[in-house]
Design brief:
alpha/beta; globular; Rossmann fold; 19% strand; twelve-stranded mixed beta sheet; 3 domains; 33% helix; Domain 2, N(10)-formyltetrahydrofolate synthetase
């Protein structure tokens, strides 16, 4: 491995070709999108197939407040801190989605001195991957409805169509709408979901390349015939066109942190309604270019970390070496130290050594930070450090970076929560009781029928993706701390055959979020000189 390049000066970002040079990428493997962004062609991954594989570190968190606790910021700062130690470090993150950008949380490129650049471009369109996902998804919906209109040769039952439409905005008015009005075959109630919930997005995050992408798209089940047999996108002969729309979106996006650390930003599944991690393609590429790769899984450990181990690592054969649980004074004030300890125990249950990063915001009082550190030291974590990367950049997180790298060198292996052979209901029970602390699971009769059918059709070996609130370890967002004495309700089950998991919906979870009373979009504007403000 070549030594890590020096930290970028405060004067501005490095040209992206220079970032690529330092990584060992060739210029003919890049497609530049201006000076600061490039897509990396998949031939680079083939060329590097025999390169040494770096250490993978997962960043997760305790149960958050609605505004988030800074996992992305911590992942960025940690990569900067590791690079300051002389290590070749890369961070891999999900692409921001417009729903949160224009809703409550705002952008997802970090904050302060731990931020990706160019932040505005990343938060808005980047290279258009989300649009490609939406276009491919909605093409399938259009072809499906067109099939109904032109005679319904496959004898599809309109009441058994499970394929929604998608948009990348929070638009609660589209949660349920009447479509094909006046068409005697196609008229029905239909739903829209946010693009991050699309099975196409999940596939983009989990695929290994073009051939695998095409096969996965073809396996997607969108409806059932009147005799109950599934209808796939291969049956509708549209998967090839969808793959063509996604060709360029397959390539990971290369950007950098404010300190010049390389960053791959790719795919964007949510962790509360999907599996919530960056793409396997980005992770695999980064692991062959760096000594340490820092990645993030959405929301808290019971969602992001569990799905990372049981879905992403199982699918992509990744082997993370350590994890970081992010805690903040405001999350501890809401959920308590027992909640943090629960998530540390969850990480340990999944086989990884664990450090706690107390993410210090600039306005945190010293006594509140002291109390947070005390709670973290009592959580059972293998290491605890105050992280001041928001205010100080990589220099403010070097102690944590040192501890995390030492944990990663232990060589410990992740431990999936359940084996493939376990039945679907038993997998749900194990997640609910071992990770969420529930007393058991109550499965709605219709959901139980669907689980039994999926097992008869040969899908029993798939992992489970639980869709639930991120604001509680339980299914109920009002249950703070460490809820006990409850049962997890499963109200609906849906097969994601292309992505390779079964999603179960609990509580009142929505796959189309709504905007708040005062959306973040109302603060964003374009100045006469072209400057974007309020983002």
């Amino acid at each position: 491995m070549r030594p890590a390049p020096p930290v970028a000066p405060a004067s501005g970002p490095r040209p992206i070709l220079q970032v690529a040079d330092d990584l060992g990428l060739r210029h003919d493997e890049l497609e530049s999108h201006g000076r600061w962004i490039a897509k990396v062609g998949l031939p680079a991954l083939s060329r590097l197939a025999d390169a040494p594989v770096g250490r993978l570190v997962l960043v997760t968190a305790m149960t958050p407040t609605p505004h988030g606790e800074g996992k992305t910021t911590t992942a960025i700062g940690l990569a900067d801190g590791l690079r300051r130690l002389g290590l070749r470090a890369v961070v891999t993150l999900r692409q921001p989605t417009l729903g949160p950008v224009f809703g409550v949380k705002g952008g997802a490129t970090g904050a302060g001195r731990a931020e990706l650049v160019p932040a505005q471009a990343i938060n808005l369109h980047l290279t258009g991957d989300a649009y490609a996902v939406g276009a491919a998804h909605n093409l399938a919906a259009a072809v499906l409805d067109n099939h109904l209109h032109h005679g319904n040769r496959l004898d599809i039952d309109p009441a058994a169509i499970t394929w929604p439409r998608v948009t990348d905005h929070n638009d609660r008015a589209l949660r349920r709408a009447r479509i094909a009005i006046g068409d005697p075959i196609g008229e029905r109630d239909a739903t829209w979901e946010i693009t991050s919930a699309s099975e196409v997005m999940a596939i983009l995050a989990l695929t290994s390349g073009p051939l695998d992408l095409r096969r996965r798209l073809g396996r997607i089940v969108v409806a059932r015939r009147r005799d109950g047999r599934p209808v796939t996108l291969d049956d509708l002969q549209v998967a090839g066109a969808m793959a063509a729309l996604l060709r360029d979106a397959l390539q990971p996006n290369l950007v950098q942190t404010g300190e010049g650390t390389p960053a791959f930003v790719h795919a964007g599944p949510f962790a509360n309604i999907a599996h919530g991690t960056s793409s396997l393609l980005a992770d695999r590429l980064a692991l062959r270019l760096a000594e340490v790769v820092v990645t993030e899984a959405g929301f808290a450990a019971e969602l992001g970390a569990e799905k990372f181990i049981d879905i992403t690592c199982r699918t992509g054969h990744l082997r993370p070496s350590a994890a970081v649980v992010v805690a903040t004074t405001r999350a501890l004030a809401l959920h308590g130290g027992a909640n943090l300890a629960h998530h540390v125990a969850t990480v340990h249950r999944l086989g990884l050594p664990c450090a706690v990063a107390v993410n210090a915001f600039p306005d945190d009082a010293d006594d509140a930070l002291d109390a947070a550190l005390a709670a973290a030291r009592g959580s059972g974590a293998d290491a605890v450090h105050l992280a001041r990367h928001v205010a100080e950049g990589g220099a403010g997180i070097e102690a944590l970076a040192t501890a995390v790298y030492e944990l990663a060198l232990r060589g410990e292996e992740p431990v999936p929560l359940y084996p493939d052979r376990l039945g679907l209901r038993e997998k749900i029970e194990r997640i609910a009781t071992s990770i969420y602390g529930a007393d058991g699971v109550d499965v709605a009769p219709s959901a139980l029928v669907e689980l039994e059918r999926l097992e008869r059709e040969g899908h029993g070996g798939l992992p489970i993706c639980v869709a639930k609130t991120p604001l509680s370890i339980s299914h109920d967002p009002k249950r703070a701390g460490v809820p006990a004495g409850y049962r997890l309700p499963v109200r609906r089950v849906r097969l994601f055959a292309g992505a390779g998991f079964v999603t179960v919906y609990t509580g009142a979870i929505q796959t189309m979020p709504g905007l708040p009373a005062v959306p973040a979009a109302t603060r964003i504007d374009l100045e006469p000189d072209g400057t974007i403000t309020g983002l």
